[in-house]
Amino acid sequence: MRAEPQDFGRVLSSMCTEPHPAAREAAERFLATNPGDPGTYEAVADLEERVVDDLGAIVGLDDPVGYVASGGTEANIQAVRAARNLADAANPNVVAPESVHFSFRKAAGVLDVDLRLAPLSDDYRADVDAVRELADDDTALVVGVAGTTEYGRVDPIPELGAVARDHDALFHVDAAWGGFFLPFTDREWSFADAPVDTMTIDPHKVGQAAIPAGGFLVRDESLLDALAVDTPYLESTGQATLTGTRSGAGVASAAAAIDELWPDGYREGYERAQADAEWLAAALTDRGYDVVEPTLPLVAADVPEREFEALRDAGWRISRTGDDELRIVCMPHVTRTMLESFVADVDSVRPRRNVNT
Amino acid sequence: MRAEPQDFGRVLSSMCTEPHPAAREAAERFLATNPGDPGTYEAVADLEERVVDDLGAIVGLDDPVGYVASGGTEANIQAVRAARNLADAANPNVVAPESVHFSFRKAAGVLDVDLRLAPLSDDYRADVDAVRELADDDTALVVGVAGTTEYGRVDPIPELGAVARDHDALFHVDAAWGGFFLPFTDREWSFADAPVDTMTIDPHKVGQAAIPAGGFLVRDESLLDALAVDTPYLESTGQATLTGTRSGAGVASAAAAIDELWPDGYREGYERAQADAEWLAAALTDRGYDVVEPTLPLVAADVPEREFEALRDAGWRISRTGDDELRIVCMPHVTRTMLESFVADVDSVRPRRNVNT
After folding, report:
1. In the predicted model, what is the mean pLDDT of residues A201-224?
2. Are residues B193 and B62 in the same domain?
3. Structural domain span for residue A280
4. How far apart, in Å, do the first and last CA atoms of chain B sit?
5. Is the residue at A246 inside a domain?
6. Segment-wise mean pLDDT, segments of 10 residues, chain B, 357 residues
7. Which of residues 9-28 of B touch A (CB under 8 A)?
C-alpha cells in the first residue's frame, strides 16, 4: 500500500502549511539543484539572491545580506553562532525572554554559550527590565521575538535593541513565524524600527514557500563572514551556512511565493487569518473558556485535558502550550469553515455548564 | 523571464545528482510534510522509520537508530556533537585524517572542539600510525572516511576503529558519498566490519533521493539521546536533530529510491559508474596526464590550469582538488556518452605534445 501524506483539513497546530501553487510548481522544477554549490548550480544561486533582496524589502533592510536556511532553527543557531564568534568575552552569554523558541536552548547547547532566560510580563511579552537585569559585559546577544511560538506575541523590539546596544551586544529578532504578518500591522519589529543585527524570517511558514525555506538576514556582510569556512572541491570558495548541500526546491519556491504574494497576497492573508483568530477567540470565550487574546493569528485557550483529548480523538491535530492551553495557529491552510467545524466538535465534547451561550 | 534550473548534461563536479523518477514523484507528493513534527505528520514519520531500517540493512546495522538529516554536513556535525556531549574530558578533541570533508572543520568551530588532522599515506588514505599518534585520553571521536570527497578513497576502517577503542573514544565513519557504492565492493567499511558508533550515509547523493536527504545512523539509542532537547508546542516531546522543521520530500524520496533500487539497481549503478571511471582514467592516462587511480567512481587528474579553464569555458562544470587536480565524480547522471564528449573537448583544448596517443 502506497503511503499518503496527511491532508491539512484538520491540522491546527502546525506552523507549516500548504505551499502556494506557484511555490509548489517552482519547488518541483528546482528539486535537483543545490544552492550550497553556487558555482555549479548558478540559476538557483541567482534565485537565492532574489529571495534575500525580497526579504530585505519585507523586513526594512536596505542592501540585505543573508541566505535561505533549512528553517528557523538553523537561522537562530546561526545568530547565536555569529554573536559568539564575534564576542570578546571568554564565556559569552545570550539573554532572551522565556518565550523564545526551543531552538535557542538547542543553540546554546551546541555552541556552548550560557542562555539566560528572562521572565515575561503579564502580557506574555518580554519584560525589558528583566532582560536588562540579566545582561552584562559578557552578553554577546540579546534576543527578541516578533511573534512568539506559544502566544503570537511581539516583544518590545526597540527597547530590547537598546538594552543590546548598552552592552555592545548584537541584537537578534526571531520573526520566523511572524515576519510575513507583521508588515501589515502597526507593530515595531523590523530593521527599520530598531537596531536589529540579525533576523530569522521563514518563507516556509506564513510565506507559503515549500519546506525547507528558512530565512537568515544580517545587517552587514561582516556578520556572515563571522560564520564562513573554506570550501575546497566546490567551485565557490567560502560557506557561511550551517548545512552544506541545500535545497534548491526551498529557494525556488520562496522566490515564487514572494513574487506572487508580496505585498497584496500576504496582506489579504494576514487580514483573513487575523479575523479568523478573533472569531475563534470569541467563540471559545462565549463557551466559557479562558482565552489568550490573539495579537497575531494564534489562539490559546484553557481547555480541560479530557476535552482536549476528545478533540484529538476526533482527528484534530492540536497541541498545547507549556501551560497546557490548547493552541491553534491560523496558518494559510486554516479556513473559517475548518474552525467552524472545530468549534462544533468543541460543543460536542464539552460537558454542559452554566456559561453565557 | 522564468528562471530555469541547470541541466545535468555537463555537471561533472557535483556529488548531487538527478533523483530517481520514483524519488522525484514521492518528493512531490510529500512536499508539504514535516517529519520534524511526527505527531502532526504521522505518515512521513512512518516513512522515516522505514528509511532508517533500510539504511541499517545497507550499512550492516541490526536495529538501526537514526534519522534523515539535511545532508552529510549535519550528520557529521551531529557525530561530533554526540561525542563531545558524552566525553568526560574538559577539552575533548577529534582525530581525523586530513582527507575529511570540510564539514568537520565547520563542526569543530561550531562545537568548540579541537580538530586534529593526521597526514595521509601515499595512497591518499588515512595513515593509521599518524592517527594513533594524535589520539590521547581527551580524544572523544576518531573519524574514518569511506569514500573521500577528493579521491574516493576508503580509509582502513577496522584499524581506525581499534585506535578509537584503545582510547575509549567513539568512532565515526563518513560514508556520505561512498555508502551506496561500498556494499558492492570487498572493502571493509560498515558497522558489520568494525566497531563503528556513528555513520553518515546520504540518500541524496548516490542513493538518488531528492535533496535534502542525508543520513545519520547510530549504533544505539543512547547516542541519539545525547543530542535530544525538549520540545514544547509539538505533539512529540524530544528532538535530537540539528534542524527543527525538516523536509518530508527528502524523507519520502529516500524511501522511494531505496525501495526501487536496493540492492540490484544500486549494484548495477555502481558497476556502470566504476567502469566509466576506469574508462575515463585510462583515456586521460593515454593522453599523458597523471591520473589518480579510481578505487571508487571518482577520477582525479593533473590537468594544467589553462586546459582546465578552457574546459570550463566549454561549459563543463568541473572542480579541483586541494592539490589543483581536475576532479570528476561519476554520479548516476554521468553517462559514458557525456564522458566521451568531455574527452573530445580535452583533446581540443590540449596542446600537441609527445605522448603515447
Report:
1. 97
2. yes
3. 263-349
4. 47
5. yes
6. 88 96 98 93 95 98 97 98 96 98 97 98 97 98 98 98 98 98 98 98 98 97 91 70 96 98 98 98 98 97 97 96 95 98 97 61
7. 11, 13-19, 24, 27-28
State which of B261, B294, B316 marks the end of a domain: B261
**Residue range A152-202, pLDDT digits in tens:** 999 999 999 999 999 999 999 999 999 999 999 999 999 999 999 999 999
- pLDDT tens profile A1-49: 688 998 899 999 999 999 999 999 999 999 999 999 998 999 999 999 9
Angstrom distance (rounded) from CA A232 to CA A120: 46
C-beta neighbour count of B7 within 10 angstroms = 10
Report yes or no: B122 at the A interface, CB cutoff 8 Å: no
- Same domain for A270 and A154: no
Residues of chain B contacting residue A250, judged by C-beta atoms under 8 Å apart: 247
**Is the CB of A261 inside 8 Å of chain B's CB atoms?**
no
Give me the count of residues in chain A: 357
**Is B31 in the A-facing interface, judged by CB distances under 8 Å?**
yes
Please give the C-alpha separations between residue B237 and each of A102, A305, A320, B38, B194, in angstroms, as whole numbers.
12, 17, 11, 10, 33
Query: Is B294 within the bounds of a domain?
Result: yes
pTM score, two decimals? 0.96
Residue B118 CA to residue B148 CA, distance in Å, equals: 14
B16 located within any domain = no
Q: Does A195 sit behind a cis peptide bond, omega within 30 degrees of 0 on the bond before it?
A: no
Neighbours of B314 (CB within 10 A): 15
Q: Quote the CA–CA distance of B81 and B86 in Å, as a whole number.
A: 9
Residue B2, domain member (yes or no): no
